[in-house]
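Please complete every field before forwarding. Incomplete forms are returned to the sender.

SECTION A: IDENTIFIERS
Entry label: holo-419
Bound molecule: flavin-adenine dinucleotide
Molecule representation: SMILES string

SECTION B: INPUTS
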Amino acid sequence: MVGAGPGGSAAAYYLASEGFNVIALEKSRFPREKVCGDGLTPRAVREIDLIGLPTPREEGWIPNWGLRMVGGGHRLEFPWHEQDSFPNYGLSLARASLDHRLAEHARSAGADVREGWFVTGAVRDERTGRVIGVTAKETDEKGRKIGDEVTFTAPVVIAADGVSARIALGLGMERKDDRPMGVAVRTYFETPRHDEEWMEGHLTIWDGEPGKSNLLPGYGWIFPLGDGTANIGLGTLSPHGQPSGLDHRALFDGWIRNGITDWEIDPDAPTAKVQGAAIPMAFNRQPHYVPGLLLVGDSGGMVNPFNGEGIAYAMQAARRATEAIVGWRDATDDVAAEAALAGYARQMKDDLGGYYSLGRVFAELVSHPQVMKVCTRYGLPQPVIMRFTHKLLADVYEPRGGDWADRLLSTLTKIAPAA
Ligand SMILES: Cc1cc2nc3c(=O)[nH]c(=O)nc-3n(C[C@H](O)[C@H](O)[C@H](O)COP(=O)(O)OP(=O)(O)OC[C@H]3O[C@@H](n4cnc5c(N)ncnc54)[C@H](O)[C@@H]3O)c2cc1C
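SECTION C: PREDICTED COMPLEX
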């Protein structure tokens, strides 16, 4: 396993629970910061429940009961729906804690999570080209590589190394340039509203003077963390992954000074540095399986293009990767074993391909400022439209049954070609 973020740690947990010998090589040391919004929707809570990690409030997990959307002169609350497949709440927890807990959870199942190991590349069988391991170097406390390169061999390797996708890139797997890509920045501020149990999203991010310039495709967020602070950030979407040329720090600065005055933050006193990163979406790196190697999470571009959420999908991919690897172990001959591993890529497309194809259309549409304007001004206050849109954006619809919105969504995602 390369990387012990949510994808790597969940896979390490699942595989160790299945009795596999798992080594997860993680370049950093926990607890460590990760640039993120720290927000978990009901979909992510479901994945955390599935690995059996407890989430009590007294240990810092703060629940949220829905999404408050602000934009176009509206401020409306959309509670998470009561559904069979998902809990009716989300959570927030800073990634420094979340990722540490996930790694410890993987260890508790028997995985050997090694911190301070930087993986330098994949090792391939010279004859067949199959991935049979990785090379890695130990790092010191400052992250500097030390010592000799060490080779780790494994019958199956998972690359869960995040957006840098070093392993995949080293194998020549470039990102697809017809997929949306996000860019987001975030930091933390003290706020008296730190323990509010709602996620807040602001849909009006302007590229100049508010009200007189263009609306950008993206949103700002405030995710209270219950510890005196909130994670506050802003992201934009580029429909084909091309650089937008936007100065996200300047956009962020303008928004926190003018757009969120009711949170009583001091815009000049963030409690951490403003940091940003790219967000790889809609399966922008494929295939998700090449002989011997599975891509899980951001390394395979698995972030939801509708909302920028990636933790749930990295953990879902970890679950699916484990199913495939169990199939490989239980297969009775080599052909069936290889087919079981290859089934992972197909399963991910079955799970999310149609939905992500819709997401690509969405990214295209919202990149037109007029569309954003009409949606925020006229769409937000329409309960029928918003029932559907809320489920669509948060990806919490029932795949089978449910109400009319669930049925419509599940039909649309089935019709949309998975690519
Ligand atoms: C600003 C921002 C806000 C976001 N907000 C949210 C949000 O609120 N909710 C949400 O669900 N998603 C959010 N996302 C997306 C989310 O952060 C990612 O989708 C998620 O972290 C993906 O998990 P992962 O395990 O695939 O990768 P990562 O979390 O990136 O984990 C990869 C791990 O691999 C390690 N690694 C990398 N290279 C190597 C190497 N060569 N050797 C060894 N180890 C290596 C890294 O140190 C890291 O620990 C946000 C992203 C950004 C940029």
